[in-house]
Design goal:
Blueprint: E1 2-6, H1 11-21, E2 25-29, H2 46-54, H3 58-63, E3 87-91, E4 95-99, E5 101-104, H4 111-116, E6 122-126, E7 129-130, E8 132-133, H5 137-145, H6 148-159, H7 167-176, E9 186-190, E10 194-195, E11 198-200, H8 203-206, H9 215-230, H10 240-258, H11 264-268
Parallel strand pairs: 1-2, 1-5, 5-11
Antiparallel strand pairs: 3-4, 6-9, 7-8, 10-11
Helix pairs in contact: 1-9, 2-9, 5-6, 6-7, 9-10
């Protein structure tokens, strides 16, 4: 089996690890030339930790623990309150090769998903939060613009009149920071995770939002299960059966995780305190 995985985040390399264990030839493509520095902390829970241990990475993972204990609410004084037999893929300018399947693990705003799946098959459910609680259209426009100046100007205009810590420190640090992560908090829901020889994995298929604390764990568990189903295919068999069995087994769990009570965003990021 020859598998092409787009995206070297969490789901993609996890899948590659287990596919390679049963002899698959795996290629990972990633547009970023270096490790990304922006983003937020991640949580790894339950069975995902068992899978990390199977990969021999648990000790390394623990070394990189942020030691963060959780979230506290503070007052103003700081006090707690396809082809038939494969895919012909062109990578970059000139690299062309055949693969048995393509895994789109390139994130919440996956260009591969956009190219392969019809628009009505993808639900992007905006939870109305951008690290601070907001419902204004301007925030969504700024997030999608990927323009740092636009994003910083909007944050300043919304928060400049708030004197309470740590807002002034945030505004000062934002200017000095080498990177700025500004994105919508959104669910991704696909009516079907695969199409022909292409399957979506991790945030590309089922981003659950940071409110769940389960995005990383879902990516790891999903990659592990998918690798297991793909390993059961006969030589030359179309991956459709593995894709369908994987989705049938894993989707109910994903849907349960994505079922966030309506009041949770307001608790995590209250508009007023």
């Amino acid at each position: 089996m020859r598998a092409l995985i787009s995206g070297a985040g969490i789901a993609g390399p996890t899948l590659a690890h287990f596919l390679s264990r049963f002899g698959a030839q795996v290629t990972i493509v990633e547009k970023a030339s270096t490790m990304l520095t922006q983003g937020h902390n991640i949580d790894v829970h339950g069975t995902a930790l068992n899978i990390i241990n199977k990969m021999g990475l648990l000790t390394e993972l623990k070394k990189r623990n942020t030691t963060e204990m959780g979230t506290r609410f503070l007052d103003e004084n700081g006090f707690p309150r396809r082809r038939h037999c494969g895919l012909l893929v062109k990578i970059g300018i000139s690299t062309i090769d055949w693969y048995d399947l393509l895994v789109a693990a390139d994130g919440q705003w996956s260009p591969i998903r956009k190219a392969v799946f019809p628009a009505d098959a993808v639900q992007v459910i905006n939870k109305g939060c951008y690290c601070v609680y907001a419902t204004k259209q301007a925030w969504d426009s700024a997030a999608r613009s990927h323009n740092r100046k636009t994003q910083m100007d909007l944050i300043r205009s919304e928060l400049a009149d708030i004197p309470y810590a740590p807002v002034p420190r945030l505004l000062e640090g934002m200017v000095e920071a080498k990177d700025l992560y500004f994105q919508t908090v959104s669910h991704i829901r696909l009516s079907k995770w695969s199409k022909n020889r292409v399957i979506c994995l991790g945030d590309t298929a089922y981003a659950p939002t940071p409110f769940t604390g389960m995005g990383t764990s879902l990516a790891i568990n999903g990659a592990y299960l998918l690798a297991g189903h793909l390993s059961q295919l006969k030589e030359g068999e179309h991956p459709r059966r593995a894709f369908e069995e994987y989705e049938k087994e894993f989707k109910p769990f994903v849907q349960e995780i994505q079922d966030i009570p309506w009041f949770v965003p307001g608790i995590a990021h209250p508009q007023y305190a």
